């Protein structure tokens, strides 16, 4: 058993009591989302009601999951915490670093040798600190979590935006950065702004070509990519309970594409079936006892307008299959309108590749529905006119569908089975193309389709659809094919009409697997050595950041005055830099290389005040660091928006930047800076941004009496001998001021643990 049954039983045992406390303070019927959030308060029982979209609340998640790209820095930081074991059940999943090229066996073996040092590190650090480790080839994090760890009423965080997939099994599951994961593993609370609630009422029943995927494609069209921001989507209604558990997972998975904090379904028979089918009958039994409380109150679903901030209703009986794209997942086309849209917009009609599977759509049901189309094609003398790939979400799914003959069905049609990993979904795709810039179309059953996502080619028009529709389009080789109305012609010249897909939700012979690819942690990890080579260019053990010197900070150089948008991607770019996620010094060579310098309107070109020369930003900062000189980054509005990538805060700290002074911060980045012991401050008067000059030397005073709500003072010493001073604000609370003084939150945690 890989999951923690005792933890789940303990949670269920305390559930009724916590819920009673929540009912008292909230004082109205509860949505499922409220039930789960109020039963996971860090402080225990609720003693106040929280304002949706307003109050920041500390939570105690039940578990943490990490994928291999983000786990590296999360665990390197965790090693700094002084803990000997993680405080909550945690897992690592090796799925992002496997490149798809020729097929599962060769691709996996190549990845194992190319990424050996990363896998060895993750395996040894997991083993030492009590973390479950899923080896390369075991599967994609979210599918593995759904199969093994998610449970109705649970709450988890994961270092990947599609962590939300676990909502399909009734878990509030939220994507976070590595620093948050590190905090929770170290036994600290996790803070979240209490979300707004969007209710999605599903009526009717799916039939024919329409699949669960089409529900979320439709929702994305309604809400757009920003419509879910700061909200949790709660699905309910007869349509919701008719969907398979994995179908629910698909819908929750793509909630990430509309910016939702997460999405969730209430506990029902389909979830119980899935739990029993995946060797978790004890969890199903325990959940059955609380079934009424693991879903929203009936009054809430009867009068949703009263209890949700927004309500959407979709009739599944009328829902058409959808294809969304290109370049954005909210451009939603019902299949009946899609062919015209392709022609009118001049999108390439030839479909070059159809790709099914991924964490979004690789359940047994998905595979069997797609295979029912492939089977018809081959038995009627058709093969795929497009390239066609299948990515199983886990070894358990792969083994089972292979045993039941479905992979052979795809191969007969011309399909290639890829490793149980992210592959083309995250751009890990050595695509067979003579012209890497060619304008072309692909359809995937994945979730994201922005430019360059799959193959790095900005001219690839990527569309998202269900696996069965993707399969049909790959057989036709054309984007304009509508399997509901159109015919295909086989080699003998016969006209063929594909019948509706047929799927099986749960394998009749049950799931099976030879080796799921799981490594349990050592019972006693004290003697286990974490494997990091001192000469590695991909991994580096972190040194604690130095504590504050106890005085005001003077004679800082201006590193850059960034102009306009400066997201975490401008501060710490992704792409080729992903490779260095576990090596702080190497990845710091991308510091702010995407930011525009106010003074020359160029990127990665700033004045080195020591030489007067312009040069790349990381080199300039390294020159200051070598001379023991600190620096300041000045920025515009909403500095650090985008992701929770902690590298964007760690890199400037590592290279000796002392403060980030901006018109306003994106909140997560601001918190990340505070956690790393940086000064994150804002202009009291935003026009003071204009006073900052390129050759300024900067003093920050007021630090010896640094306290809550008390502004600090900035002194700009201009090159011409004049100087100006102004007030700057901050949002540090008492605890965060201690982080600053200690040189970072981890320094405090470690000290607490040593004492
Ligand atoms: Fe991997 Fe794509 Fe899912 S990158 S985790 S398969 S969204």
TrEMBL record:
Q: Name one GO molecular function term.
A: aconitate hydratase activity
Residue span(s) of domain Aconitase/3-isopropylmalate dehydratase large subunit alpha/beta/alpha: 35-477
Q: SUPFAM superfamilies, from UniProt?
A: Aconitase iron-sulfur domain (SSF53732), LeuD/IlvD-like (SSF52016)
Q: Recorded E.C. number(s)?
A: 4.2.1.3
**What reaction(s) does this enzyme catalyze?**
citrate = D-threo-isocitrate
**What Gene Ontology biological process does one annotation of this record name?**
tricarboxylic acid cycle
Which keywords accompany this UniProt record? Answer: Iron, Iron-sulfur, Lyase, Metal-binding, Transit peptide, Tricarboxylic acid cycle
Membrane-spanning residues where? none
What protein name does the entry list?
Aconitate hydratase A
Query: What organism, scientifically named, is this protein from?
Result: Ginsengibacter hankyongi
């Amino acid at each position: 058993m890989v999951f923690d049954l005792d933890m789940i039983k303990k949670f269920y045992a305390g559930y009724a009591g916590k819920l009673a406390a929540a009912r008292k303070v909230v004082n109205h019927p509860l949505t499922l989302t409220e039930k789960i959030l109020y039963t996971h308060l860090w402080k225990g029982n609720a003693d106040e009601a929280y304002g949706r979209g307003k109050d920041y609340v500390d939570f105690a998640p039940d578990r943490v999951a990490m994928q291999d790209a983000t786990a590296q820095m999360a665990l390197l930081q965790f090693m700094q915490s002084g803990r000997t074991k993680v405080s909550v059940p945690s897992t690592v999943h090796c799925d992002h670093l496997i490149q798809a090229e020729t097929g599962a066996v060769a691709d996996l073996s190549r990845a194992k040798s190319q990424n050996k040092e990363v896998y060895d590190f993750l395996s040894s650090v997991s083993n030492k600190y009590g973390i479950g480790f899923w080896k390369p080839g075991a599967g994609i994090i979210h599918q593995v979590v759904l199969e093994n760890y998610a449970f109705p009423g649970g709450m988890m965080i994961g270092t990947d935006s599609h962590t939300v997939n676990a909502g399909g099994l009734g878990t509030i599951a939220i994507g976070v950065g590595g620093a948050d994961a590190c905090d929770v593993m170290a036994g600290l609370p996790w803070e979240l702004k209490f979300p707004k609630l969007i209710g999605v009422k599903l009526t009717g029943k799916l039939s024919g070509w329409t699949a669960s995927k089409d529900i979320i494609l439709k929702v994305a069209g309604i809400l757009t990519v920003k419509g879910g921001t700061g909200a949790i989507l709660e699905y309910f209604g007869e349509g919701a309970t008719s969907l398979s558990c994995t179908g629910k997972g698909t819908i929750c998975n793509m909630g990430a594409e509309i910016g939702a904090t997460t999405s969730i379904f209430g506990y029902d028979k389909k979830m119980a079936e899935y739990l029993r089918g995946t060797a978790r009958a004890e969890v199903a039994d325990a959940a059955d006892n609380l079934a009424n409380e693991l879903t929203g109150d009936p009054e809430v679903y009867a009068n949703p307008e009263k209890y949700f901030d927004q309500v959407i209703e979709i009739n599944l009986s009328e829902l058409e299959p959808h294809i969304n794209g290109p370049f954005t997942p909210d451009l939603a086309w019902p299949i009946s309108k899609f062919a015209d849209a392709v022609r009118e917009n001049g999108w390439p009609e030839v479909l070059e590749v159809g790709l099914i599977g991924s964490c979004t759509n690789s359940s047994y049901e998905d595979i069997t529905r797609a295979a029912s189309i492939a089977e018809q094609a081959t038995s009627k003398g058709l093969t795929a006119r497009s390239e066609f790939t299948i990515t199983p979400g886990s070894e358990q799914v792969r083994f089972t569908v292979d045993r039941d003959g479905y992979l052979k069905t795809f191969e007969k049609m011309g399909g290639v089975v890829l490793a149980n990993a992210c592959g083309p979904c995250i751009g890990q795709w050595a695509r067979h193309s003579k012209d890497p810039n060619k304008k072309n179309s692909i359809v995937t059953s994945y979730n994201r389709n922005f430019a360059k996502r799959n193959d790095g080619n900005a001219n690839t028009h990527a569309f998202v659809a269900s696996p069965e529709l993707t399969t049909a389009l790959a057989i036709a080789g054309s984007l304009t094919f509508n399997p509901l109305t159109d015919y295909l012609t086989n080699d003998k010249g016969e006209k063929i009409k594909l019948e509706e897909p047929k799927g099986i939700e749960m394998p009749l012979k049950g799931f099976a697997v030879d080796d799921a690819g799981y490594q349990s942690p050592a019972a006693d990890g004290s003697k286990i050595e974490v494997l990091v080579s001192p000469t590695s260019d991909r991994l580096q053990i972190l040194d604690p950041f130095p504590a504050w010197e106890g005085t005001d900070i003077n004679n800082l150089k201006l590193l850059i005055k960034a102009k306009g948008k400066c997201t975490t991607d401008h501060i710490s770019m992704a792409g080729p830099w992903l490779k260095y996620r576990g090596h702080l010094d190497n990845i710091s060579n991308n510091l702010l290389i995407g930011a525009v310098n106010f003074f020359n309107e160029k990127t990665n070109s700033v004045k080195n005040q020591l030489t007067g020369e312009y040069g790349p930003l990381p080199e300039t900062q390294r020159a200051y660091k070598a001379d023991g000189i600190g620096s300041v980054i000045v920025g515009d509005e909403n500095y650090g928006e985008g992701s929770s990538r902690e590298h964007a805060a760690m890199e400037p700290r590592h290279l000796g930047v002392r403060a980030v002074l901006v018109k306003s911060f994106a909140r997560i980045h601001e918190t990340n800076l505070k956690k790393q012991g940086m000064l994150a401050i804002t202009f009291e008067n935003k026009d003071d941004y204009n006073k900052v000059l390129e050759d300024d030397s900067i003093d920050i005073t007021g630090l010896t009496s640094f306290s809550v709500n008390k502004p600090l003072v900035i002194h700009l010493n201009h090159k011409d001998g004049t100087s100006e001073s102004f007030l700057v604000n901050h949002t540090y609370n008492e605890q965060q001021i201690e982080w600053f003084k200690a040189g970072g939150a981890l320094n405090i945690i470690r000290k607490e643990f040593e004492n």
